[in-house]
């Protein structure tokens, strides 16, 4: 009889099997994720995330698409119908850090009873508005994590934090140049 060990909400056996499968067949680690955006009005957009590709095949395991709402605050001509794009980027980093932390903690036998990340970034809107200024993106992003564990030392938790930073796909995409290939279809 196979027993399932769940730690931090993570099925540790399934995690180990996934790691071994990708180690044995690296093509299983190849994913293409997608996001779609549709302009609605003013600065308001809706987004959809549904299927993705893994190892050349389409994954349709999600019963329905996730719907996102994006807008700007009134000071940037919006109506606050959702977070803006740069806030969603910060949230993506926070999500990625949290997932990486609890999954890697589970793999190491570390129990997590609390895991929070606050992420903030400094941004100058002048280039977006066509004015002179620094680059049109964040100039610095700061992430602050808070963690509680009944069975790990401070040193273990800090080392895990360093490991998560080194292996975070979102952080890597932010700190290393990634080609962005943009096309436009006029309809």
Automatic annotation (TrEMBL):
Pfam families: OsmC. This is OsmC family protein. It comes from Blastococcus saxobsidens (strain DD2).
């Amino acid at each position: 009889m196979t027993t399932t060990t769940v730690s931090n909400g993570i099925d540790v056996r399934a995690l180990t099997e996934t790691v071994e499968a990708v180690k044995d067949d690296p093509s299983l680690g190849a994913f293409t994720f997608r996001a779609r955006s549709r302009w609605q009005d003013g600065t308001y957009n809706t987004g959809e995330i549904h299927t993705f590709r893994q190892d050349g095949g389409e994954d349709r395991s999600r019963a329905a698409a996730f719907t996102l709402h994006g807008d700007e605050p009134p000071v940037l001509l919006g109506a606050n119908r959702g977070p803006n794009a740069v806030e969603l980027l910060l949230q993506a980093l926070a999500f990625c850090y949290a997932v990486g932390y609890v999954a890697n903690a589970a793999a190491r036998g570390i129990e997590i009873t609390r895991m929070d990340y606050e992420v903030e970034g400094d941004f100058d809107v002048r280039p977006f508005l066509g004015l002179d200024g620094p680059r049109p993106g964040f100039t610095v992003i700061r992430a602050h994590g808070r963690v509680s564990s009944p069975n790990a030392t401070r040193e273990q938790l800090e080392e895990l934090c360093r490991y998560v930073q080194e292996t975070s796909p979102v952080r890597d995409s932010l700190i290393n140049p990634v080609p962005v290939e943009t096309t436009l279809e006029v309809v």
